[in-house]
Amino acid sequence: MDKLCFSIDEERYDDRHGHVLSLVGWYMHPEKKKCIFQLLGDGYEVIDIPEIERYERPDVAQSLDVETEGFLPGFTVTIPEVLELRRKYDLLELLLLDGEEKTLLWECAGDDLDELVNDKLVEFHIDRVEVLYGLMLESYNDCAVVLAEYAAGSVEKFEKRVNQLAGKLGASNTHFVTPNGLDGTDKNGRHETTAQDLAKIMASCIKNQHFLEITQAKQHTFTDDSGKRRFTCNNHNALLSTMQGAISGKTGYTSKAGYCYVGAVKQKNMTMTLSVLASGWPPHKTYKWNDVRKLVQYAIDHYEKREIVADTSKIKEIYVKDGLKQKVLLKTGNLKVSFLVKKTDQIKVESILPSYVDAPVKKGQKIGEIRYLVNGKSQKAIPVYTKQNIKRKDYWYYFEKIIQRFTLTRECAMIKQIR
Q: Considering the entire predicted model, what is its pTM?
């Protein structure tokens, strides 16, 4: 054998653990050299791939009539996140490098790759609820992409919607680009967030009972619609079993962000959301758990939940100027307010009401508010409303009073004459 021989025998696609394409084949170098595999996007950009799996192939030795002792001709090249690569590149190429020599082993243009993936995807269908378990328990990146496309029609439309939602939740330093948290950029910037913003988002998430059910599940097993394929997802949130009061959480990792975690804990009558970012890099996978415990202990030591009920016994009514009635009754909403504050914080309640209100007065008219101040800053305001309608004194009111007075005077005069 005087030249390099090779073959790609099989293309395997698996979306159970991310959209992974595996290329199974073999190559035989005339000098039994161990060559380097390289994956290129659009012919120029090198794409990182996992370590190549190599193994013996007796069939190759037999068909080529060569000795393979000391050389492993069989290989499996794993290409993760194929859908993400497809969105970025129109051509994928797998090369074998022998010094300066390059041999093209496999290539796939965009349309061909779409056809390959779609052919495999139609083999089975999983309910979207099950996909949520794959996302939240196992962090399957492909599940995030599928759910984004399902929810908004495309990743780009989902990006727009989720950024709008983040703004409504007060996550002002967050910009979403990818649905799975992997690095990405668009015209508005890079995919990024902060620990504070993640805690705000988690505070909203734990209000959803379905979210809690999914993130609290230790394990979830399901099948596709045909019942032929079976899947098991395991929860990797160690705090659910090791920390008292842990009610939800989600782990994360990228090479730039390191190990991350956002979660919620309920202790000492307080529900706390917390987040840690860049909490170590491999192999320090457990650092984040210690960081979370320190945050929770800090909260317990320095914060408390206080319930304040305003005293409104002196503001039951208010004077009405030029009204048919002198006073109008008042009402408020729920005056019992809870605050999560530092143990040294001072809470004060004050009523903001005018000394009187001009007639006419309409029922349900807002005339003031009860304010709750923490360290002098207003944190909560409860409106004060009127409970009834009161008309204004008008011409006819005064005319009627004159008639009444005249009638009364005349009657008194008549009684005097009779006497």
A: 0.61
Sheet strand arrangement including 45-47:
45-47, 36-41, 91-98, 101-109
Strand pairing category for 336-342 and 258-267: unpaired
DSSP class of residue 100 equals: T
Measured distance CA(215)–CA(201) in Å, rounded = 15
Helix, coil or strand: residue 138: helix
Instruction: Using DSSP, state whether 397 is helix, strand or coil.
Output: helix
How far, in Å, CA of 147 to CA of 292, rounded? 29
Beta-carbon contacts of residue 410 (< 8 Å; ≥ 6 apart): none
Instruction: Write phi, then psi, for 31 (nearest 5 degrees).
Output: -105, 15
CB atoms near residue 98 (< 10 Å): 15
CB 91 within 8 A of CB 108: yes
Angle subtended at Cα 211 by Cα 209 and Cα 214, rounded to the nearest 5 degrees: 110
At 1 the three-state DSSP class reads: coil
**Following CA atoms 244, 246, 250, 255 in sequence, which dihedral angle do they give, to the nearest 10 degrees?**
-40
58-74 b/e (C-beta count within 10 Å ≥ 16 → b): eebbeeeebebeebebb
Residue 390 CB coordination number (10 Å): 21
Q: How far apart are the first and last CA of the chain?
A: 148
CB 377, CB 347: distance < 8 Å? no
Amino acid residing at 272:
M
Residues in the chain: 419
C-alpha distances in angstroms, 119 versus 18, 115, 143, 226, 357?
Answer: 16, 6, 18, 17, 74
Token readout for 391 is 């008309």
Per-residue pLDDT of the chain (419 residues; tens, 9 = 90+): 568 888 988 887 766 555 788 899 999 888 888 899 999 998 889 999 888 988 888 888 787 778 877 788 889 999 888 877 877 888 899 999 998 889 999 998 877 776 665 555 444 456 778 889 999 999 988 888 888 888 888 888 999 999 999 999 999 999 999 999 888 899 999 999 999 999 999 999 999 999 999 999 999 998 877 777 788 999 999 999 999 999 999 999 988 999 999 999 999 989 999 999 999 999 899 999 999 999 999 999 999 999 999 888 888 899 999 888 999 999 998 888 999 899 999 999 999 999 999 999 999 999 999 999 999 999 999 999 999 999 888 877 777 777 777 675 555 555 555 55
Q: Are 56 and 72 in contact (CB under 8 A)?
A: yes
